[in-house]
Design goal:
The complex is a heterodimer of chains A (about 110) and B (about 110).
Chain A: E1 9-13, E2 18-23, E3 32-38, E4 45-50, E5 55-56, E6 61-64, E7 70-75, E8 84-91, E9 103-108
Parallel strand pairs in A: 1-9
Antiparallel strand pairs in A: 2-7, 3-4, 3-8, 5-6, 6-7, 8-9
Chain B: E1 4-7, E2 10-13, E3 19-25, E4 31-37, E5 43-50, E6 53-57, E7 64-70, E8 73-78, E9 87-94, E10 103-104, E11 108-112
Parallel strand pairs in B: 2-11
Antiparallel strand pairs in B: 1-3, 3-8, 4-5, 4-9, 5-6, 7-8, 9-10, 9-11
The chains are: A mainly beta (about 110), B mainly beta (about 110).
Chain lengths: ~110, ~110
């Protein structure tokens, strides 16, 4: 019952922007888009979330399309420490995160 | 200061034993969770407690029993351990009304032999 689709993996050059796509074509009106990442051997880390508007914080930017059927997480200047599995999650704040397979992002020097 | 801490970090035990994993958060959050990440790396929620009350109980064997002595602690007790229980267990916490902005602990790697 996956609500999101993400590429399995992607590479990014250090210092460049990393654009991570996510499709969520069945998203409903009260559901948010959340992004988490998991660096190897660590617990998942919250990155950002949004409902309709684009959002930006110190870690990343989230761009949500007008029809809300897809979104892009942007890491503006990727570093080697950004190498991780990135999870796009659609949820209605029901305290129940469902993690899929995510996108394995490798940042290369 | 570690926001969400778990002990132990590693746990190796034999089948049939009973073991506990402890979790503490110092963020003042009202809700705490246990997740299991299996060998295929899929992360699944097991339980959630809000103000010491169980609010989410996914399909988990009865051998797993969470206990919340207070808002800052959520322990996981596992009876009669089986080989399939080998996994990494993560504790997390969140503020009420921001249930999906969760803060995770470092994980406990449980190996059952």
């Amino acid at each position: 019952d996956a609500k999101t689709t993400q590429p399995t993996s992607m590479d990014c050059a250090e210092g460049r922007a990393a654009n991570l796509p996510c499709n969520h074509s069945t998203i409903s009106g009260n559901e948010y888009v959340y992004w988490y990442r998991q660096i190897h051997s660590q617990g998942p880390q919250y990155i950002i979330h949004g409902l309709k508007n684009n959002e930006t914080n110190e870690m990343a930017s989230l761009i949500i399309t007008e029809d809300r059927k897809s979104s892009t997480l942007i890491l503006p200047h990727a570093t080697l420490r950004d190498t991780a599995v990135y999870y796009c999650i659609v949820t209605d704040n029901d305290y129940k995160l469902s993690f899929g397979a995510g996108t394995t992002v490798t940042v290369r020097a | 200061d570690t926001a969400v801490s778990q002990t132990p970090k590693y746990l190796v035990t034999q089948m049939g034993n009973d073991k506990s994993i402890k979790c503490e958060q110092n963020l003042g959050h009202d809700t705490m969770y246990w997740y299991k990440q299996d060998s295929k790396k899929f992360l699944k929620i097991m339980f959630s407690y809000n103000n010491k009350e169980l609010i989410i109980n996914e399909t988990v064997p009865n051998r797993f029993s969470p206990k919340s002595p207070d808002k800052a602690h959520l322990n996981l007790h596992i009876n009669s351990l089986e080989l399939g229980d080998s996994a990494v267990y993560f504790c997390a916490s969140s503020q009420e009304d921001y249930g999906d902005e969760q803060y995770f602990g470092p994980g406990t790697r449980l190996t059952v032999t």
